[in-house]
Amino acid sequence: MNQVFSLHRLAPCSTSLRLLLQGPLSSSLFFSANKRFSFLRFSLRARAMASHIVGYPRMGPKRELKFALESFWDGKNNAGELQKVAADLRSSIWKQMADAGIKHIPSNTFSYYDQVLDTTAMLGAVPPRYGWNGGEIGFDVYFSMARGNASVPAMEMTKWFDTNYHYIVPELGPDVKFSYASHKAVDEFKEAKALGVDTVPVLIGPVSYLLLSKPVKGVEKSFSLLSLIKKILPIYKEVVTELKASGATWIQFDEPTLVMDLDSHQLQAFTHAYSELESTLAGLHVLIETYFADVPASAYKTLTSLKGVDGYGFDLVRGPQTLDLIKGGFPSGKYLFAGMVDGRNIWANDLASSLNTLHTLESIVGKDRIVVSTSCSLLHTAVDLVNETKLDKEIKSWLAFAAQKVVEVNALAKALSGHKDEASRKSSPRVTNEAVQKAAAALKGSDHRRPTDVSSRLVAQQKKLNLPILPTTTIGSFPQTLELRRTRREYKAKKISEEDYVKAIKEEINKVVKLQEELDIDVLVHGEPERNDMVEYFGEQLSGFAFTVNGWVQSYGSRCVKPPIIYGDVSRPKPMTVFWSSTAQSYTERPMKGMLTGPVTILNWSFVRNDQPRFETCYQIALAIKDEVEDLEKAGITVIQIDEAALREGLPLRKSEQAFYLNWAVHSFRITNTGIQDTTQIHTHMCYSNFNDIIHSIIDMDADVITIENSRSDEKLLSVFREGVKYGAGIGPGVYDIHSPRIPSSEEIADRINKMLAVLESDVLWVNPDCGLKTRKYAEVKPALSNMVVAAKLLRSQLASAK
Description:
The chain has 29 helices and 22 strands. α3 runs antiparallel to α4, α9 packs parallel to α10 and α28 packs across α29. It is α/β, with parallel strands linked by helices. The protein has an 8-stranded parallel sheet.
């Protein structure tokens, strides 16, 4: 496990596969999944617009990479076995696109963990704590940066723009020594070429890489990450030179930060970087890809003026206003990569509407200069609809997963039109519920705030709960063992009775409750053994939702989520959590948290209907959660946590659109708990993101207690309080990172708590981990929580002595 392995030096696949790739198309691979494509009978030899895929899911249609990674981390398989799984997945993806007739097929979009971390490895930007001494970066260093190890913590992880994907944040400073330390991009290109597939190597662009990084601890505040551009460009030049020598004809630089609100200095960095790269890029076609939003006018001008660039990729799904900029002027002789197929949702493309847009673009840039593309990488959608054998046929006819979107791209490139299923979705009685529509519409006239201020509520709650100073709690979930997962799976498959299932879950809850009592945790959780996923569990009990069997999407590393599909109006037919929370409370005298997922998180972590505004769907979910909160209170649950882990990630990328989103998102949260008693304590939880810029909206949520990620981001959250923001509610900045197997000592945790006490009052501070414990093992959880409680008690003793 500690040996150094090259990440991509792999043997090419068999001759038979190479011949298959060069052979005739088997159309059933794509068309059998969705009758919607039955009209797509065309010859792949027909001349048409070029087609392009920005990127593709890497986990595999049945999460093959996830299981291979976790087996490798557990020491159950070796590096060669992991590499074999990865190579098979890559060759399958390239074959799929080649068979579908895609002209510009991406390579280097596969990753063992994260594409930004891959770039960090390519640049040799390894933080010193990982003990790397040069040479090709192997799995040991790579996974230590991603996950930490026994002696050092992982690098920070945060949201990738406004998606549910997380990336590993580079740590850069003026003294970083960059070197070409991972040949992954070149190795992957050669691997595809050996299979007979010419690909477009994809690199994260140099400017976006720096803008997505963070300064290493201890550097001067005046240090600018963009000052490192002159140090990283030589590495990019080496990579480009090797790709050219290997036969590449196109290269794609992803520069998604161009959709952000950038200042003139930041925009100038793009001009400088690509001017510096121009001579090295000579002889290559160069594509600059943007995605996730409109490109601002100033950025559009900078982008379309870059030297040595042949094509520009735009997200025309989430950035339709970019069309106006294109209409206002597009550089002659350049290629427009038109992102017409949505890479972030699972609804089938409205082919007629897309073709109308393409015809408009054709009149501006010329037919031979348009390349039909996805709006962004298909990483953010499920893999293949063909694996959904249990999905309702009507709903299935409305959908397209990544494999089907590849076909949609090529269908549009061939300028086809035909039957669409949009009309059936719009007219289906399953989509609309008039009572829900009226209830949601009525919400718009009220602010929905609890009548008593938070300070008064906290006093009333403390009288009832009688908690110590620095109360300890956890975020909700406890480890999901193989036995527990098997129990749920067997119950779902009707292999065990409901009676046996309830008995098994009650036993698990009791075990978790007793463990927390032994650890002397103050506010308990039931551990969520009955739940598969914090969104899917609720969606399965709400109307208007549909579910897949294999609709997995990567969140980070090997962690995948299976987002529900919200296809219609949402309501709650009956209580969802009351039985289990009440059962758990009956096992203890200590406060037991009722655990709910908030409306904004359910919305942002689902594939959401696109036939009405997102806020209307969110209000509907809020009303359903409100019913559940009130039923929990009636059942005697005095602490209720409503997780809004994904509130920040839904924030629009452009500042001009953020206030509207935050207004309805925060309003939705308040709807869930308005009208309950002052003595009922409402918690919320938020994880991995940058919260400092929305701290006033978080305060406006008016929760009694918020637990929030803090440890992996170097206590970045605390800086907002150092700068004078007053927070009067309870707050629990996470004291240790649960996304790493590393067990922190009680001294380390006590040190973190002391840092919090320097900026927060002791009477509002809570002590808790960063996030839920679902993905960890009990061997890690027990000592970590024990150390957390020891640290809290130590600080209580010190505070008492100081008084």
